[in-house]
Write a structure and sequence with these properties.
The chain has about 230 residues and is an alpha+beta fold. The chain has eight helices and six strands.
């Protein structure tokens, strides 16, 4: 089969573009994505999540966003958590109909390992005195090494995120998603009623009529049928 030089160049260019797009789309995996509280291990989570958007709809602080194509095709429409916004109200866990979010109590939630980026931290990077994270931590999990450099005692950390919210340097303290607590699925794929250990609602609940109307409005706005 004879292939012209022009065709060969087109094939080469197409391969380069495809490789770039696949890298951007995150086809290599999703282990670095942060999921809502109680998420199953990634393989099971992806398999069970119905992309129904219920967790997005009930999230009071708007801490959940749907996966974009840049997160990888298999993650499109799946819930991704912005941990700095999460208040662990557990409404997302309560509303999940598929079991991809295990119905656990707030006390078990671990969204990731709190980590200090020493290249961005004001104390570590520039030697400036800053103890905002130390004062923000109610669990006393952050202390100052040599009275200047903050370090995290991961055994005491309660993963509340107060240090992240209070830190004056964006990105200096973050949650490493590799430390998030994930769950193995219950035996059997189909559940008639999932074990519920969440506890009482933290917010007043709307009537069914109010919920149904708000749900339809949310979906119409999300899919561009009506403007927000």
């Amino acid at each position: 089969m004879n292939i012209s030089r022009r065709t060969l160049l087109q094939l080469a260019a197409g391969g380069i573009v495809t490789t770039a797009l696949c890298g951007t789309a995150g086809l290599v995996g999703a282990s670095d994505l942060v999921r809502p509280p109680g998420a199953l291990i990634e393989k099971e989570f992806i398999a069970r999540c119905a992309r129904c958007l219920r967790c997005l709809y009930v999230c009071v602080p708007l801490a959940i966003r749907p996966g974009h194509w840049t997160d990888g095709p298999r993650n499109l429409g799946t819930p991704i958590l912005e941990t700095e916004k999460c208040i662990r109200c557990m409404e997302c866990v309560r509303t999940c109909p598929t079991g991809s979010l295990t119905k656990i109590p707030k006390s078990e939630v671990v969204l990731g390992t709190v980590t200090i980026n020493r290249e961005l931290c004001l104390s570590w990077a520039s030697g400036r005195r800053c103890d905002v994270c130390v004062r923000a931590c109610r669990a006393k999990a952050i202390t100052l090494e040599n009275r200047r450099f903050p370090v995290v005692d991961k055994s005491r950390c309660e993963h509340c995120g107060r240090c992240i919210l209070r830190c004056p340097e964006p990105g200096a303290i973050f949650r490493d998603p590799r430390g998030a607590r994930r769950y193995e699925p219950e035996p059997g794929f189909i559940h008639t009623r999932l074990p519920d250990r969440i506890g009482p609602h933290e917010f007043a609940q709307a009537s069914y009529g109010e919920w149904f109307k708000a749900r339809l409005t949310f979906l119409a706005q999300h899919y561009g049928i009506i403007k927000k």
